[in-house]
Design goal:
Distance between the termini: 43 Å
Radius of gyration: 18 Å
CATH topology of one domain: NADH Oxidase
CATH architecture of one domain: 3-Layer(aba) Sandwich
GO molecular function, one term: oxidoreductase activity
InterPro entries: NAD(P)H_nitroreductase, Nitroreductase, Nitroreductase-like, YdjA-like
Cofactor: FMN
Number of helices: 6
Bound molecules: flavin mononucleotide
Number of strands: 5
Organism: Roseospira goensis
CATH superfamily of one domain: NADH Oxidase
Family: Belongs to the nitroreductase family.
Amino acid sequence: MTTLVERLQARQSTSAKHLTAPGPTDDELAEVFRAAVAVPEHGAIRPWRFLVVRERGQQRLSEVFVDDLLAEEPDAGEAEIAKRRDGPRRAPLLIVVAASPRAHPKVPEVEQVVTAGLAAFVIQSCFHDMGYGAVWVTGHPAYSDRVKAALGLAPTDHIVGFIHVGTRGPEAPNRRKTRPEPDAFVSEWTGA
Ligand SMILES: Cc1cc2nc3c(=O)[nH]c(=O)nc-3n(C[C@H](O)[C@H](O)[C@H](O)COP(=O)(O)O)c2cc1C
């Protein structure tokens, strides 16, 4: 049995194009969300929102992505349209993780967005732990008020990520990625 530290060191994303059926079960999803709401969070604001998007929802969100593209770029080419259309339905399951911050005297918005990011990471990591592949993406639709509105989010909300989840397909690379040397980012501050 590996430790959590070892599993985090070995964590890596799987490109959505390598994610196939089956996706997680409802019971697995429920376990993952139970872990997601256990992230550190200041002020009991609970600003996270998790939208589960499958099948019909993915088809509908594809249309929303295309409408959004065409609203911004009416002359968008077929390739660009196809790419947007494909975006939400590349894997069996899509989870939209959003932050819905509210004004609070002690908890600035950045902290509320950070905790939603933590929840997104926990969701992705739990799926890895369960043996699924997952990848966290954003892209233009994450910052579109039209997309937010279609998902029932306010313009002041933030989509922190679209997490694609599925079974790693046979073509998914198994090579362990090279990671940066942590020493480059770590120093000791002594105040001297
Ligand atoms: C907030 C956020 C947004 C991201 N958006 C994208 C994206 O739109 N497209 C993409 O290819 N990767 C995106 N990534 C990076 C991937 O999730 C992934 O971390 C990266 O491909 C490196 O792979 P690894 O997780 O195995 O190190 C994003 C990561 C974060 C944290």
